[in-house]
Amino acid sequence: MSNIDIPEVLNSDEIGDWDMSCDVAVIGQGVAGCCAALEAHRAGANVLIIERASGGGGASAVSSGIYYLGGGTEVQKALGHEDSPDEMAAYMMSSCDPLDPLAVRQFCDDSASHFSWLEEQGLPFERTQHLDKAVFLDTTECLMYTGNEKLWPYREVAKPAPRGHKVAGTGENAGSVGMAPLLEKCEKEGIPAIYDSNVTNLVRDANGRVCGIRVKQADGIIHVNARRGVILAAGSFNMNTQMIADNIPLLGETSEPLGIPSNDGAGVRLGLSVGTATSAMDGVIPTASIYPPAQLIKGILVNKRGERFVAEDSYHGRTGNFVMEQPDQKAWLIVDQDIFAYPEIPTANHSFVDGWETVEEMEAGLGLPPGSLVRTMEEYNKNASEGRDPVLFKSPEWLKPLDQGPYAAFDISFDRSTYLFITLGGLKTGADGECLDARSEPIPGLYAAGATAAHIARSGKSYASGMSLGPGSYFGRRAGRHAAGANWSRG
Amino acid sequence: MSNIDIPEVLNSDEIGDWDMSCDVAVIGQGVAGCCAALEAHRAGANVLIIERASGGGGASAVSSGIYYLGGGTEVQKALGHEDSPDEMAAYMMSSCDPLDPLAVRQFCDDSASHFSWLEEQGLPFERTQHLDKAVFLDTTECLMYTGNEKLWPYREVAKPAPRGHKVAGTGENAGSVGMAPLLEKCEKEGIPAIYDSNVTNLVRDANGRVCGIRVKQADGIIHVNARRGVILAAGSFNMNTQMIADNIPLLGETSEPLGIPSNDGAGVRLGLSVGTATSAMDGVIPTASIYPPAQLIKGILVNKRGERFVAEDSYHGRTGNFVMEQPDQKAWLIVDQDIFAYPEIPTANHSFVDGWETVEEMEAGLGLPPGSLVRTMEEYNKNASEGRDPVLFKSPEWLKPLDQGPYAAFDISFDRSTYLFITLGGLKTGADGECLDARSEPIPGLYAAGATAAHIARSGKSYASGMSLGPGSYFGRRAGRHAAGANWSRG
């Protein structure tokens, strides 16, 4: 993080008079900021929201609107899916190996009740489901498998359950349908917010406690006193090219950040300025899904050595992570006539290379080492015919010998297709959103939530769709209550 | 890696006459270097070993001599332990989530035959076992559980089998008993070696291929031409304080590196000088085991918030990793009268704090937040009495309510006890030991094996004892054969 711009920290005695004052300053009005503001306000604190854009919503409003929640939510129950905090915790613990297992356990314990809270705020969730493989939906259906729940080894550890809860909107930007009621609640409950306001620095008092912020507005600079705490809910660093280059050099020119212009890491940099530690700064989900249609999962993915490298039934972000790490970042999706179809995600730009009568011709056509693809497919087909994949443990339901020529290949190379990415790294926090230093000691007066904080998943290999909005809304609430001086009541 | 010393790369046209010449130069004569040299030599290459110390053995000779191998070795079979390449791969894939799954699969496929190869070289392995929890043995017994095989979630994914194969030596430095026959083979087969010889730079030819080395000796500098390749088998960067500070800042003053003086990262730095990528540079196994005696695993570990943070039946390196990450790096082992004993590993320096009649007194005595330890133990005891640990999934065999006062605590804090550590990071390599750049493209003419290469386990949370010597010897052999121009025959 050699070259990134860490803002200066101001001392409160350098500030003359505060221009504004509150108990809790919430920086950013995406999902984490809204939830933090609502909880702090309802706990009796005087809250001020400071937002860079001209209105609330943040990146959450342009997301696909999926909340990763489980343990027996009302939707899961209505549709007959068994789930429990134990099973959800088993899945998250085994797939994410999180820094803070107890915080994850609490998220799982509270997950069903947190879902109900979201519904109480007015977020619309249907009692419907979409159990086919999908990345986002053009329907308002709710419940989906959005992660690696059915992937080996997790399926062995925890009973798979769908936990992606999508708000009743459609398409890639369904998230706005979930943000509208949260923004409305903030307004109706009279929580003041200032817009077009860019927080440039934190202010510390003589005891080293964060007690305020400097805000740049069109017509000048103001200083805001935050008597109880400052909550950084300012989104990710997706758009900060220097932070990306420093931390995730494998992302290249064809990778495109998912987010909004203010996702420039401002929150992370403010946290760093007072000594907050970071976690998983190299974590990223690069996605250019090969499915839908689901039948393509029955194909295989090979690298330029002609070798497989990831179970093809992985969550698309996991697959993208492995593609990113392959030799020269090259990879192809191989299919036979039985399962031939075009990948449907238009943004991915996977290109059809060619069709060939034989595997030998395909190997030559793709420029793979002589014999490599033939050997890989012989071994794969033999095992698939026995319903097993002893190398990468793809699930039996997606195994079939690829032996019905002609054959075809799609180029899914990392530097050729378009991989949209979300960063996973951010500030290290405790279960109540308190910012922590390298030794996990709290930074007094400072909180982080949402994409400004490090995600539970530290690698795109373990992320699931909804693991931003789900934990972001939950830990945002906890940060709000804690900053307001109230306890969190579990379960 | 801002401040570390990366050596200059020399161009072959700057070198006048080569002082020595060989096909394959092997830098370092620990286990990886010996195995590489033997295989390259037997494949017909003209090999030269260059070693910094006055004799061979390296850190391998002062290790505890455990080789992590399985899939049905002769020892496993003789003692009636079922294991297979599939089960071993399932364990390693699920616990390590390795960068290169196919290399791991090949290691598992070849593991039993590699064990037999080691025996053929003269390494002594008894057909005996030690199935109690131990860190190292004062007996010559062979087979042990040395990792997280029985730990949740891995026990759900792969049938646990003991895979730590210890050579028939005793104590912390049993490794020398395994190195003696390998060194003898090198000598008997007439592989030349030069000692007290420090490789300071790599030399590249006009095509960018690594083709030689500069060596510093007591009486001057020589240049060695390596026509087919250079194999870096020069150990870890354990002893390089700058590399440690840059990559693993959580290691503190009370942490002590396990290794020998030449583990200064010379091999890693040589690899970096020509653009080899690194992996897992922040990976570390810090160990100060709480067991033996095994009964202490029935205790609980708590941090300064009075909360548990890791399943106590974890491999000691996994536990140490979690202790390192706790608030203020503080942690205590809590026991009741039923299971009271002193931790036996003398180097750990875990100190007895005190005994107390009640949990309330213990909580106060340890300065934990009021009510915190009482709540943690009430919850733990209730679940333990039902044979479950829904929070951290400790195995039922180690669960018992801690309700038989008086109680006692041992301080196992990271900054107070002595945690011995081994670094896990190093150069990124392929299955044949070829050094890879960031995009996984090979660096022509350069190989790495042993602790100079990144380990399969990228975090101490997934390491097992023997995962240095086991893969180090296996991938060392493969690097030797590949550098000599020979193929590796699988299985």
**Largest Cβ-defined interface:** A-B, 38 and 38 residues
What is the β-strand count of chain A? 21
Count of individual domains of chain A = 2
Radius of gyration of chain A from CA coordinates: 23 Å
CATH C-level of the largest domain in chain A: Alpha Beta
Q: Strand count, sense and closure of the main sheet of chain A?
A: 9 strands, mixed
User: How would you name the CATH homologous superfamily of the largest domain in chain A?
Assistant: FAD/NAD(P)-binding domain
What fraction, in percent, of the residue positions of chain A are helical?
25-40%
For the termini of chain A, the CA-CA separation is 39 Å
Low-confidence stretches of chain A: none
Alpha-beta classification of chain A: alpha/beta
User: Oligomeric form of this entry?
Assistant: homodimer
Question: How many helical elements of chain A?
Answer: 12
CATH architecture of the largest domain in chain A: 3-Layer(bba) Sandwich
Shape of chain A: elongated
Q: Overall pLDDT of chain A, averaged?
A: 95
Strand % of chain A is 15-25%
Q: Which fold name is given in CATH as the topology of the largest domain in chain A?
A: FAD/NAD(P)-binding domain
